[in-house]
Fold these 3 entries.
Entry 1:
Amino acid sequence: MSTIPANEPTFRESVDLMFNRAVALMDLPPGLEEKIRVCNATYTVRFGVRLRGQITTFTGYRSVHSEHMEPVKGGIRFAPSVHQDEVEALAALMTYKCALVEAPFGGSKGGLRIDPRDYDEYELEQITRRFAYELAKRDMIHPAQNVPAPDMGTGEREMAWIADQYARMNTTDINARACVTGKPLNAGGISGRVEATGRGVQYALREFFRHPEDVKVAKLTGKLDGKRVIVQGLGNVGYHAAKFLRDEDGCTIVGIIERDGALHDESGIDVDAVYAWILKHGGVSGYPDAAHTAEGATVLEAECDILIPAALEGVINLTNADRIKAPLIIEAANGPITAGADDVLREKGTVVIPDMYANAGGVTVSYFEWVKNLSHIRFGRMQRRQEEARHQLVIDELQRLDEVLGDQWSMTPNFKDKYLRGADELELVRSGLDDTMRIAYQSMREVWHDREDVHDLRTAAYIVSISKVAASYRAKGL
Ligand code: GLU
């Protein structure tokens, strides 16, 4: 089941159309443009697993879009709607995403056509391990060649099974843990990976609101504080983005759209309470503290300052684009706006912070995890206490001043504790992510503002990333 209307281009065609818009403004050598656009290979596997006394056949894909850098990187999705076109579109977006945020990977994506809710944990483990086996034996899971990660329908648990399966098949590979990212901490994961994509959305918005000229283009004013937000999809990405924006940036979450309808409340919705409700009841229906409507689409079109589509592709399409009121949309999901809808929104003056940038927090922290696995040491392990010891020297001096100056000057309460503490892994990960999101935004906005023929951030993002991929190919002599 796809959310993209049948009369609109497919997801992959949409990505290609957006790509073409950007390359039309670039001066790429003939042939290179096509080399970058096309998907290098898609592997389809059909495998059987004996479940409940009979053999069930599953279909899975792993698509490699571009190997201008290796390993190639991208998540594995478990959903009944998975198909080749979708996996290829998502693999292409991974290429552009990694290039934009300077994660040294090519683009890939995998998918298994399955509804995970139909199986218990033991069965899912059998299925995941078998899929991992099929991919690993063809080097489509490999620390140096192809490194999967979580996506829709998968998480830490599935990544731990994949890592273990790879390790069983490669018993002497000292870097085996780097074959997949998004693992639990006790199986070689990194602090902050689960929250990473949502955190990246928050950092992206913070950076956007640091530029008053950009805020003005979106017909908004002031800071992120106090903005009214609607989020579509309260999965891992939507939940973390909404939670951080509400708890740390003073945003009000006025709408939450889920599979079974939407919640709407101008005075604000308690994201944690709704998340807990969804985990328990499977949807938002019956949630007592906000008005519920079965027509989720109406809330997508409701008044707000920022709309965050964080679920499926194609939810904003030609059937609803002209009714979307949000002046600023940040694409936390991959491909939530079709190429046709993108044209409508651009005409209307809606500012869209594009997926390849907005949701790059996940792969950015995956990059940190991969580096951690290859270096076999936790970030901060060598420096933390040394940093604290140096801070202690400063504190000792300030303490002396405090004693001498008596009532004229004293240290701010809490300063000592805050300053003394060296950064742990989570803080370093967040700092690396924040830096990445700021720099990538600045590279996009420079193209957006400096070039008269570029009118939107998406085209700017494509131009930045395609230039980087082209430079890699050129360096390889292509
Ligand atoms: N599936 C995520 C994405 O679409 C993460 C990919 C990764 O970490 O490799 O970006």
Entry 2:
Amino acid sequence: METALLPVSPDSLQRAAALLQAGQIVGMPTETVYGLAANAADPEAVARIFTAKGRPSDNPLIVHIAELSALPQLADPPALAYKLAKAFWPGAMTMVLPRRDTVPDCVTAGLDTVGIRMPSHPAAAALIRESGLALAAPSGNRSGSPSPATAAQMLADMDGRIPMILDGGPCEVGVESTVILVREDSVRLLRPGGVTADDLREFCLVEVDDGVLHPLADGEAAASPGMKYRHYAPAAEVTLVTGTAEAFAEFVTAHTASGVAVMASREELPRLPGLHVPFGRQGDPESQARELFTALRRCDELGAETVYVHCPPKRGIGLAVYNRLLRAAAFREIVL
Ligand code: AMP
Ligand code: MG
């Protein structure tokens, strides 16, 4: 199959919507990362997503909507969900809610909940409206690889596997959406993202799930199934290093060798030995989120065997960056 990479236009949106209506899958830009979309109501179309990604069938998909009126058709939300939707939609927040029977089992991996998000990227909203569908869409990478932050990254993973990718430019946020389980008067943070725990605390109690920062114990069930898989991982062995810029420089100088790459802010890199992987600006966690997946992919392009990542602060969106890095590093972390 030829994969067409088309800039977003009224014509390409129409073609993408027609493919979705015909049960095909399409790459779409969102403000978080690129997604691989299918008609959420069509189990055969949804099955194509799992095949193209090589995704385990017990990892549920997020359903994307463009209007609040679509929410009660898919889920049975408590009042708090409407309050949060008003504050953070359209945007990088996915709410896990009691599902309705209208959502097929293959979307929710058989769970009695469904994850729903209203993306803010104009092309994603336009595609949902043009198709008239709710779109099930996981990140557009092959399962296990870093999520795509550009259309070219998605093409590298999906070339020949899907008919079309809409190119809407690089993603603004760069990491996947915040996933929260919404209860009557509190939420549980299952995956940190662009909407931070502090943002949510303005509206309700926020409990951070253990799986956000710790590996699951043997036999423990994941509150968010996606978090249990090895993820975002380049071929190289990744180690996180936490400490000041000076301590990090000393550490990598002592551990440099051929095939060793360092992933650090642009301000730090000129002073560091090894293969350089730029990772945002110092003290600017938004820029580090935006560049995270491009940086992880860069490690492979450089043929790195070992990567030392200078870990950003774990506050705000930095928590989302840290959560993804932990999985890329299989939880290998050195605190200096
Ligand atoms: P992705 O679309 O690739 O960003 O992955 C979707 C993420 O949302 C995965 O980590 C899932 O585990 C999580 N998710 C989706 N639906 C649910 C749900 N009903 N319950 C818990 N987590 C969910
Ligand atoms: Mg994903």
Entry 3:
Amino acid sequence: MSLKNINPTTTNAWKELTSHFNDIKNINIKDLDKETNRKENFSLKFDDLLVDYSKNRITKETLNLLVKLAEEVDLKDAIEKQFSGEIINVTEGREVLHTALRSTTDAPILVEGKNIKPQIQTALRKIKSFSNKVISGKWKGYTGKFITDIVNIGIGGSDLGPDMVVESLKYYKNHLTTHFVSNVDGDHVSEAIKNLDPETTLFVIVSKTFTTQETISNSETVKNWFLKSATIFDIPKHFVAVSTNLEAVDNFGIDRNNVFPMWNWVGGRFSLWSAVGLSISLSVGFDHYKGLLAGAEEMDLHFKNEDFDTNIPVILALLSIWYNNFYGAETEAVLPYSQYLKKLPDYLQQAIMESNGKGVDRNGNKVNYQTGTIVWGSTGTNMQHAFMQLVHQGTKLIPADFIGYKESLYGLTAHHKKLMANYYGQIDALAFGKTKEEVHSELKLSGNEDKIGSLLPFKVFEGNRPSNAILFDKLTPHSLGKLIALYEHKIFTQGILWNIYSYDQFGVELGKELANKLLNNQ
Ligand code: G6Q
């Protein structure tokens, strides 16, 4: 049985939400914040994670209606279908089972009648043993030297996830240096290899199809570079692949023993939990890699089992729909207050926009409502000195997720205090703004009474700009896994509510076709 097919705008909840929106659209977060227990009533705690969504333009009634919407489109049924391996990626005829990759239970998950759990475990054992060998130095290059550098060659889902996680977990990394090459721009690969030593470099070629123009071009280039000093018999010590296309991998010259599996039931942008994450395991060690998977599994169970009104990914998805479909907000910002997470917005752009950037519903009809939000962002505090001006005083409504950590990793507590003061300061500034009266008395008190006439309107902050505070105790592989899975489930929930297919990506095809045509005509 496939996913249900319900146009959200035809539900009772949508109608009620529309009239509710008309009633409350001018509410102000400042007034809402005065409610008794507002923070407690609009916060969710899940072990080391606290999500405070009290600074949103919502009431209890809004939330009830949004939850009702999720119920009316039968989100529960869709969740069950995803986790149990139904073919919910209908347009590609595939199951969507990235959650199976991190499941530690014995419960079988069947794909074409076969339990996939054993092959997942075998792949994990292979990742473990390979990572251990390379990290310990047991695995040696063709002249007997240890491996010092890893180069991940892949693009899109075969690059953004591993790259983002390796960067985010830099604190936990070992002696290996990891590089990522993705762009077909030859300067990218040239820069990456210019200081590398072929005797001590390991290339991890990640391509589900092993036909992707960028990845194959870059792989051929590094192979030629390698063969300037080594022979084809040395390739097995320096090239491994993650792919489903064994024939193409063979043709490239990679030893079958050095191939890690990929499966069609894992979408590229959700694949860092598979062997696509090999560079992660090499960079931080298998135990940390497992920690990442364990954190994601905890979020999976929360998403699967928790009631919608206390379900973190569901609530964040519903809030996003509230702004996107009722307030007409076009974009959302993701603002991590950790320099380690600087690549998270890029990663989420693919995950969110490639998944939910669809204009046709599950009937194949053009939708008559807004879908996929535009996501963008950068790290705090850097972005406060850059684009935040527009978020505070511009004309657009931009709901924002502020991701923060109670503790820093190196323990410079004075720095962390400042960082978090900025985190909360921004949230409050957006929500509460600064009134005319406040600006007036500020100018007066600072002895600038003469400037009140000319400056006052420019210094006013309207406020009433919504945000969520997503706060973890500490950045660990475990909490990162949880965070990524949170967004994955938010994406899924929104796709279900918008009645679109989130797991195909035909939108990237046309440009590829045209580029190939142009190449062939040259
Ligand atoms: C992700 C997309 C896409 C894909 C790349 C790389 O969901 O499918 O970004 O990951 O095009 O594809 P290959 O892994 O096949 O090279």
